[in-house]
Specification:
Largest sheet: 12 strands, antiparallel
CATH superfamily: Anthranilate synthase
Shape: globular
CATH architecture: 4-Layer Sandwich
Radius of gyration: 21 Å
Number of strands: 22
Helix content: 25-40%
Number of domains: 1
CATH class: Alpha Beta
Mean pLDDT: 94
Low-confidence stretches: none
Number of helices: 10
CATH topology: Anthranilate synthase
Distance between the termini: 37 Å
Length: 428
């Protein structure tokens, strides 16, 4: 492994590297922890992978985990970078996705990259591929200035009136004893030509998050400002960190502190988090050594640029009878984006949501040569197709018997607002 010193800050390097790589490579996966040094169990590793020795995209969502195991069997000691859509759930349980997706997307993409770099504040470690010459070219390149545009209109595909009708339907479903909690998401669509790397960099400056990601997969892009980890493996230790419970930021320190206290004491928000923790405990127990599943932190409060959120950590020790991929499969999809009980709620979600989620609430991450892995939750994300010019986003919230429809709708708008603001005053 070769370590190369940078001539500038890592932030300046990435501002040059992403557009430079975007113009030269069809496959790029960039995972950005945004210096969240105090995030529980650490944020993403700061990794960038590009080029592909092998790329596999299964044709059907029912085949995702079979394809995952097959490529890992062929390349057991290589770096593997992965995108999996929400619809990958169909390869875990007997489920379908009957509605048209909000944007065309492969069910999953598995990449053995040509190059893997890990970035620190002043150096780059070359885990795989070339380094010095490429880094010199990037550092000597010029940062392009982009002009502002305002010709992208984002449409709300679900009106507030429709949302409130759906909310009542969901509450009735809960009252009848069919579910405890349902994560209901609403779609937003637009069209236009955007410069994907520039939009990502702007999004990341506006809402830097510990599980941020930029992906170029041929013509499809994912620009993510995700605050949430799905699942991580370090050695035999597994953690999952569901987020449930959201509050806006205050306009002053006093208001911020009051909103934190309100979140801490909210029966609704606390119950949402506890329900999902129970679900995650059950998911991890399927591949855990008996008695190893525990909760190191329940409903911890963490502050991000535009929201406060409740985050819990659920931990287990993997049973040697199971593989690393088994752990992900039997926890998929993440309970924070479904509700409980999981299978019946996923069937209901497919009925009531306006479109199939596709890439939204899927995951992006990596497996290293030792089968350690880390995956985020694809929320607070922009999905873009360079050929069709489609732009797709979603936002959601957890609905329980305690919930208020108007409040839940406003929470969705709060979560989507930074992306809409960037796109409608975007860079080209």
């Amino acid at each position: 492994m070769n370590t190369i010193s940078l001539h500038s800050s890592s932030e300046s390097f990435i501002e040059k590297a992403l557009p430079w790589l975007e113009n030269r490579y069809d496959k790029i996966i960039y995972l950005n922890p945004n210096q969240y040094a105090n995030y529980p169990q650490k944020a993403f590793r700061h990794l960038i992978a590009f080029g592909s020795e092998v790329c596999v995209q299964p044709e059907k969502s029912e085949l995702v985990f079979d394809a995952w195991k097959e490529i890992r069997a062929h390349y057991p000691k290589d770096w593997l970078f992965i995108f999996a859509s929400y619809d990958s759930k169909n390869s875990v349980e007997e489920l379908t996705s009957a509605k048209e997706a909000g944007i065309k997307s492969s069910p999953a993409t598995f990449i053995i990259p040509q190059h893997v770099w890990e970035i620190s504040s002043e150096t780059i470690e070359i885990h795989k591929g070339n380094g010095q010459n490429l880094i010199n070219e990037i550092e000597s390149s010029f940062t392009t200035e982009y002009q502002s545009i305002t010709d992208i209109t984002i449409k709300h595909l679900v009106s507030k009136e429709t949302y409130l009708k759906d909310f009542e339907h969901i509450q009735k479903f809960i009252r009848e004893g069919n579910a405890y909690e349902i994560n209901y998401c609403i779609p937003f669509k637009g069209s236009g030509t955007i410069n994907a790397s520039a939009i990502y960099l702007q999004l990341n400056k506006k809402i830097p998050m510990p599980f941020s990601a930029f992906l170029k997969l041929d013509d499809a892009y994912i620009l993510s400002a995700s605050p949430e980890r799905f699942i991580k493996k370090t050695g035999s230790s597994i953690i999952s960190q569901p987020i449930k419970g959201t509050s806006k930021r205050g306009k002053s320190t006093e208001e911020d502190e009051a909103l934190i206290r309100q979140l801490q004491t909210s029966e609704k928000e606390q119950s949402e988090n506890t329900m999902i923790v129970d679900l995650v405990r059950n998911d991890l127990s399927r591949t855990a050594l008996p008695g190893s599943v525990h909760v190191p932190e329940l409903s911890g409060i963490y502050t991000f640029p535009n929201v406060h959120q409740l985050i819990s950590t659920v931990q287990s020790t993997i049973d040697p009878a199971f593989t690393a991929i088994d752990v992900i499969k039997y926890a998929y999809p993440m309970g924070s984006m479904t509700g409980a009980p999981k299978i019946s709620v996923m069937k209901f979600i497919d009925q009531i949501e306006a479109v199939s989620r596709g890439p939204f609430s899927g995951t992006v991450g990596y497996m290293d040569p030792d089968d350690n892995f880390d995956f985020n939750v694809l929320i607070r994300s922009i999905f873009y197709n360079h050929i069709t010019k489609e732009i797709f986003m979603e936002a959601g919230s957890a609905i329980t018997s305690y919930a208020d429809g108007a409040t839940e709708y406003e929470e969705c708008l709060l979560k989507i607002a930074p992306m809409i603001e960037i796109l409608t005053t975007a860079v080209k």
